[in-house]
């Protein structure tokens, strides 16, 4: 296999990538810069023909890519990482434009991808050998075939390349579909990949939401790796059933954070706030409910409010800690949580925030002081910078309250008594529980949800298996 070279890279024109080539389309759409409300560059809307051609190319590429050694696949992944990182400044600019993230966080995401690459370079596919008197059993993990990656808009690079890296390492080929809200960095990253990988190994088709069902229905695709909302996840699982595609669903959450009475209030208050408002609350594992022990409730809330008031919200490059909400649809959705809070007379601990500033989708972060258990802000994921706090006194009761949700993605427990915090953490029904930290997923461990937060998981050594079939060779000893 020899790598193909498709282009000189520019960062102001965007194409789908099919069979190693840049492709336009009859229809076009564009993202919107959420900090200014201005339209960004045109991108082609992928068609059924594009999907069919990409699947044919991916199937052909799979024949040889799946037979390459893991060492060779890692070698090309490392080259890809170096090539991608040589454009890290341009990628950061692009990510700022499409998401509105403050530059330091856009940079963190762009460079975070390199950590994903690096971590995967140290992973090996497990092999298990069992021998008895009559036979040897060899359990290996072999690639599935063509993977369809359907991605969201909150971390467009990490959440697309976080699928590409393990899929390619395990010998699959992959077609990536970015969110229509954030097509730019993904299309460009996959364009860069064409300088390294043979045609068809990694492709990208952007477009409308209509493109997702074309991937989920396609009989030539063996797995869908999806990150996005619970509602879409359910549709995807149903759509995968007729072809019995494997699917990994990384969905939404309503993470609880439990604060024990012994914490250092001044230290923990800003951490609790950042756990809720990082990336303007648009994080699947952002803290979405904060349970503070009654003994420290007032003082902790006061410190959290003080810190929240210092948070500057603004455009990338303005020195702001938080950027805008990424798109108008989400901005309007988050505002309904503010309206619901007002209508029901729940208390804004930070004062009533300004939700409409300039043309960008900016929202000042806020905290809702002790709304009832059946309020929307307790029961639903707002995916924006608004979080409720409630007091607790009884450990058993607060564990029940934290677990009283259809979701189970992440959770946190804070306490100087680490043993107690871990004991509580072990009883929280969530895929990733953090003790004395807000939610910080890492490529070092599998990431996945319990309950309606998902099926299966990706990342880490264990996550590699989600891109594989188990393959057992039973060899009987010659008689
Ligand atoms: P979304 O479900 O609206 O869209 C995600 C992707 O699915 C997009 O690419 C979209 O075009 C595509 N899509 C839409 N309809 C489809 C269909 N019928 N079939 C196939 N694909 C379809 O989600 P979003 O608004 O982009 O992302 C926000 C949600 O994602 C939040 O709920 C958040 O918690 C969740 N999320 C989860 C994780 C995780 O790892 N668990 C990470 C980030 C975001």
Automatic annotation (TrEMBL):
Record-annotated active site: 250
Taxonomic source organism: Baudoinia panamericana (strain UAMH 10762)
Superkingdom, natural source: Eukaryota
GO molecular function: aldehyde dehydrogenase (NAD+) activity
Protein name: aldehyde dehydrogenase (NAD(+))
Catalytic activity from the UniProt record: an aldehyde + NAD(+) + H2O = a carboxylate + NADH + 2 H(+)
Keywords: Oxidoreductase
Family statement drawn from the similarity comment of this UniProt entry: Belongs to the aldehyde dehydrogenase family.
Annotated InterPro entries: Ald_DH/histidinol_DH, Ald_DH_C, Ald_DH_CS_CYS, Ald_DH_CS_GLU, Ald_DH_N, Aldehyde_DH_dom, LUC3-like
Aldehyde dehydrogenase domain residues: 27-470
Pfam families assigned: Aldedh (PF00171)
Gene3D superfamilies reported for this sequence: Aldehyde Dehydrogenase, Chain A, domain 1, Aldehyde Dehydrogenase, Chain A, domain 2
Enzyme Commission number(s): 1.2.1.3
């Amino acid at each position: 296999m020899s790598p193909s070279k498709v282009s000189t890279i520019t960062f102001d024109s965007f194409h789908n990538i099919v069979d190693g080539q840049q492709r336009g389309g009859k229809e076009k759409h564009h993202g919107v810069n959420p900090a200014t409300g201005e339209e960004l560059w045109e991108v082609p809307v992928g068609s059924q023909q594009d999907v069919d051609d990409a699947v044919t190319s991916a199937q052909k590429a799979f024949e040889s890519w799946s037979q390459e050694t893991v060492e060779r696949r890692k070698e090309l992944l490392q080259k890809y990482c170096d090539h991608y990182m040589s454009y890290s400044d341009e990628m950061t600019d692009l990510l700022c434009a499409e998401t509105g993230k403050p530059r330091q966080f856009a940079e963190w995401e762009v460079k975070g991808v390199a950590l994903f690459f690096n971590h995967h370079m140290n992973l090996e596919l497990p092999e298990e050998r069992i021998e008895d008197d009559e036979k040897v059993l060899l359990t290996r993990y072999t690639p599935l075939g063509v993977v369809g990656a359907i991605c969201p808009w909150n971390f467009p690079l990490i959440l697309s390349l976080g699928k590409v890296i393990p899929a390619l390492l395990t010998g699959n080929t992959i077609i990536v579909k970015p969110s229509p809200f954030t097509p730019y960095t993904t299309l460009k990253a996959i364009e860069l990949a064409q300088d390294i990988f043979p045609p068809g190994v990694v492709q990208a088709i952007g477009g409308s939401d209509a493109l997702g069902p074309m991937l989920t229905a396609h009989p030539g695709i063996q797995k869908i790796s999806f990150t996005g909302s619970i509602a879409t996840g359910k549709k995807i699982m149903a759509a995968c059933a007729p072809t019995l595609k494997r699917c990994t669903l990384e969905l939404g959450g309503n993470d609880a954070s439990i604060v024990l009475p012994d914490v250092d209030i001044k230290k923990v208050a800003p951490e609790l706030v950042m756990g809720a408002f990082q990336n303007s609350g648009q994080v699947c594992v952002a803290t979405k409910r904060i349970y503070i022990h009654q003994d420290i409730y007032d003082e902790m809330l006061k410190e959290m409010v003080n810190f929240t008031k210092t948070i500057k919200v603004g455009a990338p490059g303005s020195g702001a800690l938080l950027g805008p909400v990424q798109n108008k649809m989400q901005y309007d959705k988050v505002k309904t949580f503010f309206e619901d809070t007002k209508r029901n007379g729940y208390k804004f601990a930070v004062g009533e925030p300004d939700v409409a500033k300039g043309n960008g989708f900016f929202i000042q972060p806020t905290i809702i002081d002790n709304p009832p258990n059946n309020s929307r802000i307790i029961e639903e994921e707002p995916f924006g910078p608004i979080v409720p706090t409630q007091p607790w006194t009884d450990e058993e009761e607060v564990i029940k309250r934290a677990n009283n949700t259809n979701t189970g993605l992440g959770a946190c427990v804070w306490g100087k008594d680490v043993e107690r915090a871990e004991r509580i953490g072990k009883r929280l029904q969530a895929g990733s529980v953090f003790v004395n930290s807000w939610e910080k997923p890492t490529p070092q461990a599998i990431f996945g949800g319990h309950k309606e937060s998902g099926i299966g998981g990706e990342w880490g050594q264990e996550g590699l298996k989600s891109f594989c079939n188990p393959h057992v060779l039973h060899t009987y000893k010659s008689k």
